[in-house]
Structure formats: structure tokens, C-alpha cells
Design brief:
The structure is a single chain. The N and C termini lie far apart (55 Å). α19 links the parallel β14 and β15. The chain contains 23 helices and 18 strands. The chain folds into four domains: 200 residues, Rossmann fold (3-Layer(aba) Sandwich), CATH 3.40.50; 69 residues, no CATH class; 169 residues, Four Helix Bundle (Hemerythrin (Met), subunit A) (Up-down Bundle), CATH 1.20.120; 194 residues, P-loop containing nucleotide triphosphate hydrolases (Rossmann fold). It is globular and about 80 Å long. It is 49% helix and 13% strand. The strands form three sheets. The chain has a seven-stranded parallel β-sheet, with helices on both faces. A seven-stranded parallel β-sheet has the order 14-15-13-16-17-12-18, sandwiched between helices. Strands 6-9-8-7 form a four-stranded antiparallel β-sheet, with helices on both faces. By secondary structure, it is of the alpha/beta class.
């Protein structure tokens, strides 16, 4: 129950925050969100399921709201606050700005830190070893590795890849990154390494900032392996609209056949090498089993590759060969059933080798530096072999997995055998909802077509009571934005569509502001760019020709000099791109952001719904497009003072029945049809 003492504490922090920040603006939606989150965590709304889904528009102040509500209650309940985000930008905002503000207002009553996966940290011993000529780094890369090692030794760098002042090339990082075997906390040499120092910080922290992928990895491992146990956590899922897709990706499997065959040869070479450095009697039996597993898996992977090659006609249009309704060819199912145990045997052999190496170091039969190099190789190989187990096992049991998509993909010269859950709600029910003390999911776009049904079905909470669903308005005056929906345009599939989009871009440039054009594919980006380049316009920045960072930097430089500047990009720019004020005055959305119907998981989901006599367009395609369209339109207004124009160039908004539904779900912009 939310006690008076806890209410008083929240109010005190909030008041202190106001006093310490004269520019702080009190917003009714923010205070309402604070109250709703606090009541949810305290169990006042639902003691058995302390879950809240909150949609709060841009500018509400969501981050401060959940920090002010959750941290005082977590302290009172002896729980940890774990904030999970989808983007690095929000993580940095929380760590550098929002949490320090609340920390100051709370008079330093809590500790906070940023949690990252192993792959973000270097190993101090590997970094020293990488400088050796045997590693084969170029002189330029070797010099950088030396500077990194010196900075780490002198305490001027914490070993975090993201905190080094420049991007560290993969050619270096692959040799120094932490792995699960050689960089074990059980080794005295590694207890003070960057990764383990960071892990110690997690245990002391009251507030931990992570990302969705790291949170899901911890939950899949049983929770408590990286982050605190779920029952001790108040999880805040910020940017929660991305959580279901990231959760599904975390449960997906793939097996690259040509790469796997190459790695089997590397595993056999490592086996030969281990025979020369370890006691033969300690690995002889395991070595025989490993060789047998490699031979059998090589046979399996070659047969799977042959099946894909023999059916190359299936790949021609989309690059995928999908197996409808989980009905995989019998030949593939039989191979998976017959050989997944071999992949499991291989993984067990590699694990046994790791144990023998660690024992050899303890008995002084092997040098630590030599053992670490071997364990690093084994760690990568074991991780890979486990992924083979998961993929083959999913195909071996395909008859029991109607909720799984199965397909082959062809990417350049690689052939990938893939599987993925379709509806992830059941997985999240087991991993998250039933074990967590409390979960608060917040985003500016949780609803679709005006309600939460689509998201609730995605995350496995279809029966969540309405009292635990909150939709709060943005403080923005959306009448400052003019929305145009031209009706006299060719449809998106018409040959003249790209030229028409280019004409509207040229017209937008007459406003001499900042222009962003969002297309649903790189193909459309290229076609529109071709038409625009005929006019020799200046300051046109095309995604793909520059990196996103370069493109945004050039756009910002132009706008600082009050020059017209245009970004031509894919719909990927509808999230995580912040162009406030004069940086963006004209937003053009070329066509509705419908998902690609041939994408394997999307197509399988549509089939699954049809098999239940449900309408996939109304239940899946349209709600997804609605949310993406809202996100895309949200690029224009980032601050209360922002204004400008949004032009939706898809004539289906006027000609199709669903157009009115999509428009009705948008914020109340000032309509100006043309």
C-alpha cells in the first residue's frame, strides 16, 4: 500500500527538484504519471500483478516521472530499479542528465550505474597480449592497442568500448573483448578487470540502467545472472514499444551453413593443438567424441546446403524460402532430428576441454596466458555450437511449434537456416510477467488505432485490466503543425510515384528550412534521389551515400548557416533521430509504413491468424502501420515551441477505407488538405 510516508518522500523529491531547477515546468500529465506508477508499484491497483502500461506523449517528462515514483518506493520495499531502454541515446540521457537530477534532489540517497554486456568491455590481459607481434595487428592498430593498454593501466580509461574517445576498430576489438571462459571471475588475474569491476558496481547500485537485449539475456538465463533476480526488481521498460520485437529476436535462431562448415575445420584444428599442450589421457576420450561429432555435423550441414541449392528457385524473389504453417520439408526435419544430438555432443566436448585447461592452470601444467588464449577460442566455439543445437532442435520439433516461423535465407554467399517465435507473448509471460515484482512499460507510442489491444496481444497481457492502462496527452499544441494529405497523387506502385515525391520535395525546399523525407525502402530513396539530382539542388543528403552520423552532421551545419537542407532517408529515421526547432520544418512521408509482406515472420504470423479465422490485415498489418506512422510524424515536433508541416504522400489515405482510421489515430494536427 502507498503509505503517507512514501507519498511525502515522493513529494519532497519532486519539490526539491523544482527548487534546484528554476526552468523546470510542472506538467499535469507528468504528476498524473508519477501517481499512477507509485500506486502500481505499491500494489494499490492490483496487488497480484503490479504491471502498468503507460503511453505518454513527447514532452510529458516520462523519465523524471518514473524515477521520482519508482526509486523512493524501491528503497522502502528493499527492491532494485532496473531501467531498460532500446537506444544508447536514452541510456546516456538517463545516466548523464535525468538520474543525476533526481540523485541531487534525493540528497544522494541512492546509487546508480549503467549495465552493459561482456562484449562492451576489453580484457586487460588480452589487451596486453594483443600488442605482441604474434597477433598480427597492423602497425597502426598495434599503436592504438598500446595506447589503450597504457590508458587502462593508468586509470584514464575504464575498458568500456563506448567510453574510448574514438571508435575502436573491430580488427583490434575481436582480440581484446571479454569472453565467458578465459575472463572468469574465478581467476584471480581477472577479478580486477574492467568487466568484473563493472559487475561489482551492479551489486551495489540501487538503480541500474540496461538495454532490452541485456535484460532479456538475463531473463533467458533465469534472472539474477547479470541483473538482480526478477522478484527483487521493479522493471521500467522505456521505449517499450520496441520490447516485443527485441524479445522475439532474442528467441530466434539461425545457422549459417557455409560458416559452420568452416568453423568445424577450425574446431578440428584446435583439437589437434590441444593434444600437444594438454595431458593426452585427460582429453583422449573427449577428443574422439569431438571428431565424431564434427564428421556427423559436417555431413548434416552439407546435406542442408544441398537442399537449399537444389531449391534455389524459391529464393529468387525475396531471398527467403519460407515453410508455410511450420511445415518444413521432411528431409530437413529428418536431418535436424538425427543430428541435433551431435551438436549437443560437440558443445559438451568443448565444455570438457575448457574444464581440463582450467585444471591444468591450477596444477601449474599450463601457463595462464596460454590457457587464456585457448579458453577464448573455446568460448567462441562453444557459443556457436550452442546456437547450432538450438536451431536444429527447433526444426526437430517443428510439429509441436505452430507458433514458430521456419525458413531459409540467402545473404550474399551464405545460406542461413532460421527459426523464430511468431507470437512472443507466451515467452514473456514465463520470463517476465509471472516473476517480476513490478513492471512499468512506458512509451510515446504504445497504442495503435487509438487503443492498446495490439500491444497487449504482442506482450502476452490480453486481459490486463483497463485500470492498468494509462494514456496521457502530450503538453504540445499540435495545432502548430500543419498536416497535408494530397489526394491527387499516383499510388505508391505507379511508375510516376517517385517523380511525384521528388516534386513535393522540391516544393518543400522553397520554404528554405530543414526537410526530412521518409521512404519505406532504399529502392524508393534511390529513385527519388535520381529525380532530385537532375535539378542540381544543393545540400541533399541521401542515406546510404553517407553514414547516418555524417548525414545528420552535415544537415545540422547547413541549418546553423540558415541554408536549406534536405535529408532523404528510409523509415528507420522515424525513431532515435532528434531534429528540434529549425533543424526540421518540413516532414514528408512518402508512403504508408506497412511491413514487408514477404518478410518471413510477418508472413508466418499472417498465416497463423488466418488459420484461426482471424483477419491479419486488421489485427496485425494495420495496427503496426498506425504506430509506425505516429512515430514518423513525431519526428517534427520535439519541443513545445516547434512548428512546421507534415505532408503524407500516400494517396491510399484518401482512397482506402482504412485511411480515415490511420488519420484519426494521429495527434490533432491542423489539417490542410490539398
Amino acid at each position: 500500500m502507498l503509505t503517507e510516508k512514501n507519498k511525502k518522500r515522493i513529494r519532497h523529491w519532486y519539490k526539491t527538484l523544482q527548487e534546484q531547477n528554476p526552468e523546470f515546468v510542472i506538467r499535469s500529465a507528468q504528476t498524473a504519471l508519477i501517481a499512477q506508477i507509485a500506486k502500481t508499484i505499491a500494489g494499490d491497483i492490483n496487488r497480484k500483478q503490479r504491471v502498468l502500461l503507460a503511453e505518454a506523449g513527447t514532452g510529458t517528462g516520462k523519465s523524471l516521472a518514473y524515477l521520482l515514483a519508482a526509486i523512493p518506493l524501491a528503497r522502502a520495499l528493499n527492491k532494485k530499479v532496473v531501467i531498460s531502454t532500446a537506444t544508447v541515446a536514452l541510456q546516456q540521457q538517463l545516466i548523464d542528465s535525468d538520474i543525476p537530477l533526481v540523485h541531487l534532489a534525493a540528497h544522494g540517497e541512492f546509487q546508480f550505474c549503467l549495465a552493459k554486456g561482456r562484449q562492451r568491455y576489453c580484457c586487460a590481459h588480452k589487451l596486453v597480449a594483443a600488442i605482441s607481434p604474434e597477433v598480427g595487428l597492423t602497425p597502426k592498430h598495434a599503436d592504438l592497442a598500446k595506447r589503450m593498454a597504457v590508458a587502462l593501466q593508468q586509470g584514464k580509461w575504464d575498458g568500456d568500448r563506448d567510453t574510448w574517445p574514438a571508435q575502436i576498430p573491430w580488427q583490434i576489438w575481436q582480440h581484446v573483448v571479454v569472453d565467458g571462459l578465459s575472463c572468469s571471475v574465478q581467476s584471480a588475474r581477472h577479478r580486477s578487470c574492467p568487466f568484473h569491476k563493472a559487475r561489482k558496481g551492479l551489486k551495489k547500485a540501487d538503480v541500474i540502467v540496461a538495454n532490452h537485449s541485456l535484460l532479456l539475456a538475463d531473463l533467458h538465463a533465469g534472472s539474477g545472472h547479470i541483473l538482480p533476480p526478477a522478484e527483487d526488481c521493479i522493471y521500467i521498460l522505456d521505449e517499450a514499444h520496441q520490447f516485443p520485437d527485441i524479445a522475439r529476436e532474442a528467441s530466434a535462431n539461425q545457422l549459417g551453413l557455409r560458416y559452420a562448415l568452416k568453423e568445424l575445420e577450425n574446431i578440428k584444428e584446435l583439437d589437434k593443438h590441444l593434444a600437444t599442450v594438454l595431458n593426452p589421457s585427460s582429453i583422449a576420450g573427449t577428443s574422439i567424441k569431438l571428431k565424431e561429432a564434427c564428421v556427423e555435423l559436417s555431413r548434416c550441414f552439407n546435406k542442408l546446403k544441398d537442399i537449399a541449392i537444389d531449391n534455389k528457385a524459391h529464393f529468387e524473389q525475396s531471398g527467403h524460402w519460407r515453410f508455410p504453417l511450420a511445415k518444413t520439408p521432411t528431409a530437413i526435419t529428418n536431418l535436424a532430428s538425427n543430428y541435433f544430438k551431435e551438436a549437443n555432443k560437440l558443445s559438451s566436448c568443448l565444455q570438457h576441454f575448457a574444464g581440463v585447461i582450467q585444471e591444468s592452470v591450477a596444477d601449474n601444467q599450463l601457463k595462464s596466458s596460454q590457457a587464456e588464449a585457448l579458453l577464448s577460442q573455446l568460448s567462441a566455439m562453444q557459443h556457436l555450437s550452442e546456437s547450432w543445437v538450438d536451431t536444429l532442435f527447433s526444426y526437430a520439433n517443428e510439429n509441436n511449434q505452430k507458433n514458430t516461423a521456419f525458413w531459409f535465407s540467402q545473404k550474399e554467399k551464405e545460406l542461413l537456416l532460421c527459426s523464430s517465435p511468431i507470437e512472443i507473448g507466451g515467452v514473456l509471460q514465463q520470463l517476465l510477467w509471472q516473476d517480476a515484482f513490478s513492471v512499468i512499460a512506458v512509451s510515446a507510442t504504445l497504442s495503435a488505432l487509438g487503443n492498446f489491444s495490439y500491444y497487449l496481444n504482442q506482450v502476452g497481457l490480453p486481459k490486463l485490466p483497463s485500470e492498468q492502462l494509462v494514456k496521457l496527452p502530450s503538453p504540445f499544441n499540435y495545432q502548430q503543425v500543419e498536416l497535408q494529405v494530397p489526394s491527387r497523387l499516383p499510388e505508391p506502385d505507379h511508375p510516376d510515384f517517385a517523380r511525384s515525391v521528388a516534386d513535393y520535395v522540391l516544393a518543400a525546399q522553397q520554404n528554405k528550412g530543414g526537410v526530412l523525407v521518409l521512404c519505406n525502402s532504399y529502392r524508393l530513396v534511390d529513385l527519388v534521389a535520381e529525380h532530385l539530382e537532375k535539378h542540381n539542388i544543393s545540400n541533399l543528403w541521401v542515406q546510404g551515400k553517407l553514414t547516418n552520423q555524417q548525414l545528420l552532421a552535415k544537415h545540422r551545419d547547413c541549418r546553423k548557416q540558415h541554408q536549406t537542407s534536405t535529408i532523404l532517408a528510409t523509415i528507420g529515421f522515424s525513431e532515435g533521430i532528434d531534429l528540434p526547432g529549425e533543424l526540421l520544418t518540413d516532414l514528408l512521408i512518402a508512403r504508408l509504413p506497412f511491413a514487408v509482406p514477404t518478410e518471413p515472420v510477418m508472413a508466418s504470423h499472417a498465416e497463423l491468424l488466418e488459420s484461426r479465422n482471424q483477419n491479419p490485415f486488421m489485427l496485425l498489418t494495420l495496427p503496426s502501420a498506425s504506430r509506425k506512422l505516429i512515430q514518423s510524424c513525431g519526428r517534427l515536433m520535439r519541443k513545445e515551441s516547434d512548428s512546421g508541416r507534415i505532408v503524407l504522400l500516400d494517396s491510399r489515405l484518401s482512397s482506402r477505407r482504412y485511411g480515415s482510421q490511420l488519420l484519426a489515430a494521429l495527434p490533432p494536427y491542423k489539417r490542410s488538405d490539398s
